[in-house]
Design brief:
The structure is a homodimer. Chain A is an alpha+beta fold. Chain A has eight helices and eleven strands. The first copy, chain A, has two domains: about 15-200, B-lactam Antibiotic, Isopenicillin N Synthase, Chain (Jelly Rolls); about 210-275, Proline Oxidase, Chain: A,  Domain 2 (Orthogonal Bundle). Chain A has helices at about 20-35, 75-80, 80-90, 115-120, 210-215, 225-240, 245-260, 260-275; strands at about 15, 45-55, 75, 95-110, 125-130, 135-140, 145, 150-155, 160-165, 170-180, 200. The longest helix of chain A is centred in the last third of the chain and has 15 residues, at about 245-260.
């Protein structure tokens, strides 16, 4: 929580900005909205849904990402969304595409985390906003930014990163995973002439009182509301100039105010899981079961 | 916030308790979960979904409740859920049934409110839990209670009432609307021998510090997080011995701490809408638009 540095930027890169036909995308977003989502994302609190459009099996119920060298095929939903399908085929090298998904997010925040897994698998992941608005944010390390519609982002997933939609209108991102390559730009069939600069968000500086008020919420924290309280605190990263490390510090201090050892342990385990010791497939943010999903942790 | 009275009860009545086959219901709940819900409930914060099984039109996309004397017919989803369909047909007088819905709720709280509308329309509404657990609650006036599986409840909807599921596991209630009758019991084809007493919840008494801590959360309230904060406060009714009137008082005092006139107005308007001046179909809990959905209100 320091002075605002207007020269900040992110390691994630905009490869190009592609034109998007808003009317077509909105029409297909309505189709997606009434379609079942078969995936739940434990790194998020709120309404976050993933819809598979393209994968190895061509089956949208199969959301496990499998290593494969052969390129994928369209799911039933992927075939149905003609505009998005054509958008992918006309702009990207689909012979190298292994998975395409639509990420729909509304009134939700993602825990700041590192993706070690993607690195080991050595895939290239691109994200392209199809629908967005001013309250939909991304964060990488200490910087908060907005992705504009049509921007093709190559995300630096090993950095601590997260996202949030503080509004009730849906944000829809296309997420494309390709076979690895040294030249991600070659995955694009065409690129624009000029590259936009990232839309970095300048945030308010939090006062000492504000920090104290956040920590004090811990006094009413209990198992039945800790998820709501954590969501409230995670939002602070987008509203105030607070880093992910400081967000986790706030959460830990807040949890200590609850005097509930289960809550204190849970928050510490989540912080370590998201930023340090990530284990594949471990369901750490199961909020209903306080016995089996928490690792023992000695609180100093 | 007074001493616990163990003699309290509710005006809503248990008509009987019917046997439910848990395995069949759980299997059909999985079918419902991947089915689109066409209705959104503005009196609720969190994940609340309604699925129409039976109505005048036999069309699940039509969720507007229309006055009618002719009995309804099954929707596509209603026909698909064979166990629930048989359960309704074997236990209730379907010649008087005008609407059947499944209410699915998870990590959600309903604003304490009165239903004037149902009374004018003069229908009989019964609710029957098909799946529930210990963190799924109902409230009527100053009393909090749990509905047990298979209990057929005739709810006193003109009293201030609400519901909450503080857990992440879904609660599934069947909601049946019948043509009006003086003898709701006659809507049942068979009834049990003994009537269970309502499962009234004895809640902890809140301390003065606790009340102060809740109000203090208002200091960090802003448009981007007020919905999360209201959800947190609404949960308090189920965790502590706090009445609906006191919940709204807490929300108003909390909103004043924000010093944001839009938030102060919004909270006052919501309280009046839920408990006093209910206008049909007015979308008061639209959290994204702060200009058009708030009635002007002079703050003293």
């Amino acid at each position: 929580m320091r002075g605002i540095d207007r020269g900040v930027t992110v390691q994630s890169r905009i490869l190009c900005q592609l034109p998007i036909d808003e009317r077509s995308v909105v029409a297909e977003a309505h189709e997606i909205a009434i379609y079942p989502s078969y995936y739940s994302y434990t790194e998020c609190i709120g309404d976050w849904r993933s819809y598979t459009l393209y994968n190895n099996q061509g089956n949208e119920r199969d959301f496990i990402f499998r290593s494969s060298t052969k390129s994928g095929s369209c799911t039933e939903l992927g075939k149905h969304l003609k505009y998005i399908k054509t958008f992918i085929e006309e702009n990207f090298d689909t012979t190298k595409l292994v998975q395409a998904r639509a990420f729909s997010m509304r009134d939700a925040v993602v825990f700041p985390h590192r993706d070690f897994i993607e690195v080991n698998e050595a895939y290239i992941r691109l994200q392209i906003p199809l629908i967005t608005h001013s309250q939909a944010y991304h964060a990488e390390e200490d910087v908060v930014f907005r992705m504009r519609i049509g921007e093709v982002w190559h995300l630096a997933a090993t950095n601590v990163h997260s996202a949030a939609n503080l509004g009730d209108r849906r944000r829809l991102n296309l997420c494309l995973d390709f076979e690895n390559t040294d030249q991600p730009i070659q995955l694009l069939k065409k690129t624009g002439d000029t590259l936009p600069l990232p839309d970095i968000v300048v945030r308010e500086e939090p006062s000492e009182n504000h920090v104290r008020d956040i920590i004090a919420i811990g006094r009413i924290a209990r198992k039945e509301n800790i998820k709501d309280i954590i969501k409230l605190v995670l939002k602070e990263q987008y509203l105030m100039n607070i880093t992910p490390a400081e967000i986790y510090d706030l959460l830990i201090k807040l949890s200590e105010q609850s005097r509930d050892m289960d809550i204190i342990r849970k928050v510490r385990t989540i912080r370590d899981y998201m930023t340090v010791e990530r284990a594949v497939g471990k369901l750490l943010t199961a909020w209903d079961n306080w016995n089996t999903d928490v690792e023992p942790f000695e609180v100093a």
